[in-house]
Design a protein that fits this description.
The chain is built from eleven helices and eight strands. By secondary structure, it is an alpha+beta fold. The protein has a five-stranded antiparallel sheet, with helices on one face. Helix 3 runs antiparallel to helix 7 and helix 5 runs antiparallel to helix 8. The two termini are 39 Å apart. This is Hemerythrin HHE cation binding domain-containing protein. It holds the Pfam family Hemerythrin. It comes from Purpureocillium lilacinum.
């Protein structure tokens, strides 16, 4: 256990070299200071604003872990500043002064709930004594940069889909109620040099895979909507757990009072994805492919199919916009009504469009892949596909986290779809995905593209299990 030391004598700091702002993580119970023995020294000193030592009775606090290459838990008074000095190993005399400031809370009892990862920051001010050599100075800078990278890297990973639970589906999953689109089979007779149509079969296959991401998104919203807790319900559940003595001590997690807001953000991203996809088809795909094939009639009634679900899509968007501004009004009933009204026309359209595009492979004007017209068609279709998935911090993570990469044909194709370097995909899923990390917990697949247990369905099952265990104990 760390021993409480007297306040260090005041000293004058030279101009600070760097100020680093990093997130911290709240823990539910105090833990002891940890380190690596002789190689690291640390001391915790709690003082009030006048420099007087605080007694344990005056200090009501949660425990905060500084996420660093060296784990240093410390106790944080809710209305005071904790002063923590950590000596860097293998450095002569330079040291970092870390000051942790907590926002004020109304009462000590609310401290644990009022201070969280998003409202708590750690400010590290590095001060170096005047006699440090240039070589030592370089090592100080490297240590600061490494610590900063570790702080922020930990924060990003903690919020990203990389850190989500990965449990294979054992209950309902996102392959129903809306049926997935079969991926058109490759036709070997179209793959010979100079033979027409192969580029359109490939386009139809990619469209099917993209449509299936949309369908899994729809299904994941439909199946989880009944199990998402409104803020008031989540708060009541947490109070019940607290009153009954359950919670972290029994291995259960607190309900997230922002769950409804995150779920609404996830659902609105699906609407944006579908709207972008629809607009790009009408503005780019339909007219340009008609020009390539020299046939203005090839799409038939496809635009009427779009119109058949647009009104219901707008109604859904309006409802979600209302919930986005007032998450406490969340109720699954109205949302499920909007989704049910949208399902039949949307499902028919997503299936029919793929079938029609694949059938164009036998069109008299279909270009051969190795021809100039085929190259133009391939470029047009590729650009359309990219533009359909636009939105680095919302639509792109949504899309990638609803692509099932375990679905492949006999030749193993589609296991790495969409085609992109793995580091780029990782960055889009886990880097860009960390910006709105709470939203993607409701996605149907994990960061590697594997089907995962739907978050709200799993949480509902855990709540039922706890209720049954509570009844059994009575």
């Amino acid at each position: 256990m760390p021993r409480v030391m007297e306040a260090p004598p005041p000293f004058s700091l030279p101009k600070p070299l760097v100020v680093v702002v990093v997130p911290a993580c709240q823990q539910s119970r105090p833990t002891s200071l940890s380190g690596d023995g002789a190689n690291r020294a640390a001391a915790v000193n709690t003082q009030d604003k006048t420099g007087n030592q605080l007694s344990s009775r005056q200090t009501h606090h949660p425990t905060v872990h500084l996420r660093a290459p060296f784990p240093v838990p410390l106790s944080l008074p809710s209305r005071h500043v904790v002063h923590l000095s950590i000596s860097f190993p293998r450095l002569p005399r330079p040291f970092a002064q870390l000051f942790v400031a907590a926002p004020p809370v109304a009462t000590p009892q609310l401290a644990a709930r009022s201070i969280d990862t998003h409202r708590l920051v750690v400010i590290a001010v590095v001060a170096v004594r005047h006699h440090v050599s240039a070589d030592d100075m370089s090592r100080v800078w490297l240590s600061v940069l490494a610590a900063t990278a570790a702080f922020w890297g930990t924060a990003v990973v903690k919020r990203s889909p990389y850190s989500y639970e990965v449990t294979p589906p054992v209950r309902q999953w996102a392959d129903h109620p809306m049926k997935l689109v079969p991926v058109p089979a490759t036709q070997p007779e179209l793959q010979q040099p100079g033979v027409k149509g192969d580029v359109l079969i490939t386009a139809a296959q990619h469209m099917a895979l993209l449509h299936n991401a949309l369908i899994r998104g729809y299904n994941s919203i439909f199946l989880q909507a009944p199990h998402v807790l409104a803020p008031g319900e989540a708060a009541a559940a947490n109070n019940d757990n607290s009153d009954s003595g359950s919670g972290s001590g029994s291995g259960s997690a607190e309900e997230d009072e922002n769950e409804a807001a995150h779920f609404v953000g996830y659902a609105r991203t699906w609407v944006k994805f579908l709207q972008n996809h629809h607009d790009d088809e009408e503005e780019v795909l339909f007219p340009e492919l008609a020009a390539i094939l020299k046939d203005e009639t090839l799409w038939g009634d496809m635009k009427k199919e779009h119109e058949s679900f647009l009104e219901d899509l707008r109604a859904l968007d309006t409802h979600l916009a209302h919930l986005s501004a007032n998450a406490s009004a969340y109720s699954p009933g109205p949302l499920l009504q909007h989704l049910s009204a949208l399902r039949a026309p949307l499902e028919q359209h997503l299936h029919h469009e793929v079938t029609l595009l694949a059938s164009l492979a036998t069109h008299p004007s279909a270009p051969a892949r190795d021809s100039f017209a085929g190259a133009v068609a391939g470029e047009t279709l590729m650009n359309w596909g990219k533009n359909s998935v636009s939105g680095t911090f919302d639509v792109v993570p949504f899309f990638l986290l609803n692509v099932d990469r375990t679905v492949a044909d006999d030749e193993g194709r589609w296991a790495n779809w969409p085609p992109m370097p793995e580091p780029v995909r990782w960055g889009l899923v886990n880097g860009a995905g960390a910006v709105r990390g709470g939203w993607w917990r409701f996605a149907s697949c994990d960061a590697k593209g594997r089907p995962r247990e739907l978050h709200a369905v799993r949480r509902a099952a855990e709540r039922r299990r706890r209720e049954q265990e509570g009844k059994a104990e009575l």
